[in-house]
Write a structure and sequence with these properties.
The structure holds 2 protein chains of 2 kinds.
Chain A lengths: L2 H8 L1 H7 L5 H12 L1 H20 L10 H7 L3 H30 L13 H17 L6 H27 L8 H14 L13 H23 L4 H21 L1 H4 L12 E4 L2 E4 L5 H22 L2 H11 L1 H6 L4 H27 L9 H14 L4 H20 L10 H15 L8 H11 L28
Antiparallel strand pairs in A: 1-2
Chain B lengths: L4 E10 L2 E11 L4 E6 L5 H8 L7 E6 L2 E2 L5 H6 L2 E4 L11 H8 L8 H10 L1 H5 L10 H13 L5 E5 L7 H16 L3 E6 L2 H7 L2 E6 L2 E7 H6 L1 H7 L7
Parallel strand pairs in B: 3-8, 3-9, 6-7, 7-8
Antiparallel strand pairs in B: 1-2, 1-4, 4-5, 9-10
Helix pairs in contact in B: 3-6
The chains are: A mainly alpha, B alpha/beta.
Chain lengths: 476, 239
């Protein structure tokens, strides 16, 4: 092979520069443009928008092969998709240039975003405002949205808050979380006498709560005791298996659980204590307020736990389990504790759902649901209560909104495609989640600068050496 | 007087692979004792077994007259054994202050005096008390790890290669602080690869080889031993 022709093939631009052609100037400008990150990203975002339009557009049919493509690309729909992807491009570009500027101005690598999280009083105010909103707003909604609020948002917020303790605080990857939800639901069915096996006494579902909490906790301890000696991936596999076991047992143990047909006629809640008499009926709103009550209880409890000695132990375990053990922390105890607390929250949610819908079947407790809740927690920001609440609410609300909104109207079977895409974008541009905890954000920032690891499941070892550029007060 | 710490015929295995083949050693109150040996000799295993991170296969660990080989690691800390693990293992995303507080996890009550004492030993930690542990330099992290272990008020401090990966000047500083900690009344069992410096600091030493103690005695004696000089101190040709 001759060197000259080989070079010409390998380096077309060099050849272009050698032989002056009329289009040379334009060609070089194009090459230069294609090297510009912003331009390259822009092209990618436009192509991505078209692909998005194709994926989300109508299906093709056998008669007219191109109907799907035509329907997707010759429809206002394509503009929405382009707007989304180009919007992402704008965000990235602005952020990119802004970040460079900030770094240039401050000259400090370690300067952490200080003003992102408002101070304590503002935060308390925001919580109160959110709470007030959650009380006042729902009665104004129509019954469809009230139903969404209960079955899609409320329950999932509660579940996310519980899983946040396990995954976010203690750093334990639990893929069988929904099993405890099932245990709660079946406890409800059992104690109200709707299972083929009968309980010693029939209870109103309202009084099943403490029993379901205990049962789910016990299940959490039984599962956690032997398995929490495992770490990371191994624990994830075991919990995954546990989730499957519970679902399969519910499915196959016909004589106890009613099998695949499920259980029907689980009664609604009612209380009559000390003159107060109330019955939860078919309307959604009372269930919503019941869930809200439990959410507030859980938030208060977990907030104080997070800021107690227990929370500190969880953080230490997440950071370095061996060091935590060497510092005198009974790591197994605290891990089991986190597991049991998460399990009990999931159990409560199970009772609520069972009594609200009145019907439970094994198919309700798929592994996909465990993953979904994990996604909600990651989306919101691991280890952050506000993140769990807002993340779960937003991510559960959005699909419903898009489904009923005339402009979008997507096929719900595609839901997980979009979830996947959202998560990928999230991991690239905001890995710490929607509303990250202070510590988690530091983990991410430090990891970006090569100090420690942002992996919650792995003990981080730090390189150090950044002390010279670090500002001692920067993160406080 | 009974020794603070005594290992009697301690045997440790990883699966079926023996790591310690029955070692015995004694640490008297107020001493600095160093445990020397090449990579894989079993030094770290010894410390981890004492502090309960590994189970002994057989043999006894006696601390202040009490058998502790069956105790869980977190309980061993509670009775007065402080462990500074290999590779420091500070909590990188906790501040210096939080790291130190973690060291006192088993204790109740006021930490102010203890913190004051740590900051006296390591002034740089006081300056950087609000900084994340992970942003400290290697030497500062080592100081933090030692400080964290000191927060539990140990009778015996187990130090696992405090000189690892540090500049000679920093090693010198840390060794002189170890001496000071001993002077303040804490007994020290020091694992080192840096044999010369460790022996200059320690009162007595043990040399570990393939899970067995091949030599023990006062530091000067080990320093003077021809075989040891050849094998560990990098002197003379290999025999």
């Amino acid at each position: 092979m001759t060197t000259i022709s080989g070079e010409a093939v390998n380096h077309p631009e060099r050849m272009a520069s050698r032989s002056p052609a009329p289009g040379e100037g334009r060609y070089r400008a194009l090459v230069r443009l294609s090297r510009n990150d912003d331009v390259r990203r822009f092209v990618i975002s436009v192509v991505g928008g078209l692909v998005l339009a194709l994926i989300t557009g109508p299906e093709g049919n056998g008669v007219q092969m191109l109907s799907g493509i035509n329907g997707a690309l010759l429809h206002p729909h394509v503009f929405i998709c382009l707007a989304v992807t180009v919007g992402v491009w704008v965000l990235i570009t602005v952020r990119h240039h802004f970040a460079r500027q900030v770094e240039h101005v401050s000259g400090r690598v370690m300067a952490l975003p200080k003003a992102v999280l408002p101070d304590r009083r503002v935060r308390a105010g925001l919580w109160l405002a959110l709470f007030a909103f959650a009380i006042i707003y729902p009665p104004t909604l129509n019954s469809f949205w009230q139903n969404v609020l209960v079955e899609q948002i409320g329950i999932y917020v509660l579940l996310a808050i519980g899983l946040n303790v396990v995954v976010g605080y203690a750093g334990l990857l639990d893929l069988g979380y929904i099993a405890f939800f099932a245990i709660g639901a079946y406890s409800d069915a059992y104690w109200t006498g709707m299972l083929p096996v009968h309980p010693p006494l029939h209870l109103n579902p309202f009084w099943v709560f403490p029993l379901a909490i205990l049962t789910a906790m016990l299940a959490g301890v039984l599962l956690g005791g032997p398995t929490l000696r495992l770490r990371g991936d191994y624990l994830a596999i075991v919990t995954l298996g546990f989730g499957e076991i519970i679902q399969i047992v519910a499915n196959n143990l016909q004589g106890v659980t009613g099998g695949a047909q499920g259980v029907i006629n689980i009664p609604h809640f009612s209380v009559h204590v000390a003159g107060i008499k109330y019955h939860w009926g078919l309307s959604n709103l009372p269930y919503y307020y019941l869930i809200l009550g439990f959410i507030v209880l859980a938030l208060l409890a977990y907030f104080s736990l997070e800021h107690s000695k227990v929370g500190r132990a969880w953080t230490a375990i997440r950071e370095d389990e061996v060091a935590a053990e060497a510092a005198g922390i009974n790591t197994l105890k605290y891990k089991v504790m986190a597991f049991a607390i998460g399990a009990s929250t999931s159990g409560v949610a199970g009772v609520i759902v069972a009594s609200q819908i009145g019907f439970v079947e094994p198919g309700d407790f798929t592994v996909q649901l465990s993953i979904l809740i994990l996604v909600l927690v990651i989306f919101g920001g691991m280890g952050s209560l506000a993140g769990a609440v807002v993340g779960a609410a937003v991510l559960q609300w959005l699909p419903q909104f898009l489904r009923v909104h005339p402009l979008f109207g997507y096929n719900q079977l595609d839901l997980y495609i979009y979830f996947g895409a959202i998560l990928i974008l999230m991991m690239i541009f905001r890995p710490e989640g929607l509303i990250p905890s202070r510590r988690r954000r530091r983990e991410i920032v430090l990891a970006e600068h090569g100090v420690g690891s942002a992996d919650a499941m792995e003990s981080g070892h730090s390189g150090g050496g950044l002390a010279a550029v670090a500002n001692p007060e920067a993160d406080l | 007087m009974t020794p603070v710490l005594e290992l009697v015929d301690l045997e440790v295995r990883y699966g079926s692979v023996p790591a310690l083949r029955g070692i015995s050693l004694v640490v008297e109150r107020g001493e600095i004792v160093t445990l020397l040996g090449a990579n894989g000799a079993g030094k770290t295993t010894t410390l981890r077994t004492i502090s309960g991170l590994h189970r002994a296969h057989s043999g006894r660990i006696v601390f202040n007259g009490r058998s502790i080989e069956a105790l869980a690691a977190h309980d061993v800390v509670g009775i007065g054994v402080g462990h500074v693990p290999e590779g420091r293992r500070i909590f990188p995303r906790m501040s210096v202050l939080e790291n130190l507080e973690m060291g006192a996890y088993r204790r109740r009550g006021e930490l102010k005096d203890d913190l004051e004492r740590i900051f006296q030993l390591f002034p740089v930690l006081g300056e950087r008390r609000r900084q994340d542990g992970g942003t400290l330099s290697g030497g500062e992290q080592q100081m933090l790890a030692i400080g964290r272990a000191m927060m539990s008020h140990p009778d015996v401090l187990l130090l696992d290669e405090p000189s690892m990966g540090l500049a000679p000047l920093v090693v010198k500083a840390i060794f002189s602080i170890i001496d000071q900690i001993r002077a303040d009344g804490t007994t020290i069992l020091l694992v080192e690869q840096n044999a010369t410096q460790a022996l200059q600091l320690a009162d007595r030493g043990y040399v570990l080889e393939n899970g067995e103690i091949v030599m023990s005695g006062p530091s000067e004696e080990i320093l003077g031993d021809q075989r040891i000089r050849a094998a560990y101190l990098g002197e003379g040709a290999a025999s």
